[in-house]
Amino acid sequence: MTETAEAVRYVAKNMRLDLRLIAEMVTPHTRVLDIGCGDGQLIDELSRVGGCDARGIEIDMAEVTRTVARGLPVMHGDADSDLRHYPDRAFDYVVLSRTLQAVERPREVLRQMLRIGERAIVSFPNFGHWKVRLQLMWSGRMPMTEVWARPWHETPNIHPCTIRDFFMLCAEEGYEVERWLAIDEAGRKSPWRRFSGLANLFGEQALFMLRRA
Amino acid sequence: MDTAPLSEIAHQSVTFACGLTLDGGAHLPTLTVAYRTYGLLNQQASNAILICHALTGDQYVAETHPVTGKDPWWELMVGPGRPVDTDKYFVICSNVLGGCMGTTGPGDVRDDGRHWGMEFPAITIRDMVRAQRRLVDHLGITRLFAVIGGSMGGMQVLEWAATYPDAVFAAVPIATAATHSAQNIAFNEVGRQAVLGDADFCGGQYYQTGRIPAGGLAVARMVAHITYLSEQALSRKFGRRLQPGKASALFGDMFQVESYLQYQGSTFVRRFDANSYLTITRAMDYFDLAAEHKNDLSRAFAGTRTRFCVVSFSSDWLFPTAESRAIARALNRAAANVSFVEVASDKGHDAFLLDEPDLHRIVSGFLSGCALHAGLPS
Is the Cβ–Cβ distance between B165 and B308 less than 8 Å? Predict the structure, then answer.
């Protein structure tokens, strides 16, 4: 028993920090769907420590294979085409981390997330960060930063947005922002959470928890 | 072609005197189910795994075949230390209803002393599953930890989960579909016509003639065997190479692929009954799980608590990935707990029986994860 508990802590310690922030947002013993679950870190943590019924969707078949082989429930699929197959309110939380900017129809994906889940937890890289703005301003070329690391013709991130853009989309769609915070690339919370203008300038990533208003 | 009758061997079995009423309305006066088990059933009877075999498989899943002397048909999947670990699980495998390895089928002698032959009633995949349920009850098991099968075995897995949801903790349908496609029915029909057209078939009553319709059944097997492979697998194995020292019956040298198929056909007829082949292929053709549930596959799994792991293979054109994805999505609509993976392989439909390490890792990991949830010791 002690051995298991220690193993769990070990995993949690090595979790991507933004995933840990998400894990902390989720109430234990709830139903969670993680879209783009990668190697399954979050669903593993949520099911083992939080006692959640946590499942994943992942587009990369090699990741799906590895994750199912670890005993985690993951299905091959993607945010754009698979969410519509789930019934209304099938989950308490639907998570989309660092993927919104890469889906084909972000607005529709958000709608589906809030149809099948009570709450949506969304994280995305912030295109409003000062480095991005400055690079575009000075060089006149598409910005390349640690977060936006690939040239424009190679990037899967076809729908970049800023924190301000995201707030506006939530208002248009009538979603209630229950919680939000700006984080740096490593996933540490930024101190500008009270001022969205500053967060939009200094936050490398944003993390939102939404629900239907 | 060897047309001598098949040798009769004794199989471990249980007989249910009350018989079995079939989906088609007919009643089989007695039901015999031949089966094998491996490993030990725990005290709570909670570690049982049922393996469902495919069209021409049988109950000898993890031991040398008593007729052919060949290796167990799912040697890499089932056994000590294998993904379906017989050191941990109590593994059951029974011959399907309509089969020819000891379970009630068209080769049996009826009360009036005649063989059933073609008069054996039409059966369904659900009838096969009902027969298996009898066996499982007989063994004192109320809930199977898992039901696993590929191809037609996968159809049975789906039918188990739909018909007896509370009796299946985990389900692993591999390289299968919730309905048989027109193309698959077409291939089966070619095979059946080959059997029916064999002069030795005698309307199905060949049991007394001292001969079996070996030629027709061999052709049926050859056609089917092509559908189990992929173009890449055939090219890789045989290409256009010729078989040294062998002439084709018609023109010149024989291709290796011809020789291979003829060998497959000739060995198959020594272990399989032609009437069973007709009966079971028909059951596959009639399988349509959605049709049993108002044409909505998700209804088949409404409210299910079974955990599913759906697996397909990239080069399988008999049961393509799209069919497995349709199953996975229907399970999504039912809010079921489902894992779905396509294994990259160039071996075609047969991949589920072959050395595919990813498949074995997936099944092994999925079962371990489920064991944790089922409270089985790991």
Answer: no
3.20.20.70, 3.40.50.150, 3.40.50.11540, 3.40.50.920: which CATH number matches A2-212? 3.40.50.150
Query: Are B362 and A65 within 8 A, CB to CB?
Result: yes
Q: Is A70 on the interface with B (CB under 8 A)?
A: yes
Question: Tens digit of pLDDT for each residue in B305-349?
Answer: 999 999 999 999 999 999 999 999 999 999 999 999 999 999 999
User: Taking chain B, what is the end-to-end CA distance rounded to the nearest angstrom?
Assistant: 50
Task: Measure CA of the first residue to CA of the last residue in chain A; give whole Å.
Answer: 43
CB contact under 8 A, B365 and A68: yes
Catalytic residues of B: 151, 316, 349
Distance CA B35, CA B121 (A): 22
Note down the domain range covering B258.
Answer: 184-280
Q: Are A58 and A31 in contact (CB under 8 A)?
A: no
Decide if A70 and B342 are in contact by the 8 Å CB cutoff.
no
- What was the pLDDT predicted at A8? 37
* DSSP per-residue codes, B142-205: SSEEEEEEETHHHHHHHHHHHH-GGGEEEEEEES--SB--HHHHHHHHHHHHHHHT-GGGGGG-
Q: What's the pLDDT score for residue A149?
A: 87
ipTM of the complex: 0.91
**In chain B, what residues touch A69 (CB-CB under 8 Å)?**
358, 361-362, 364-366
Smallest Cα distance from B235 to chain A, Å: 26
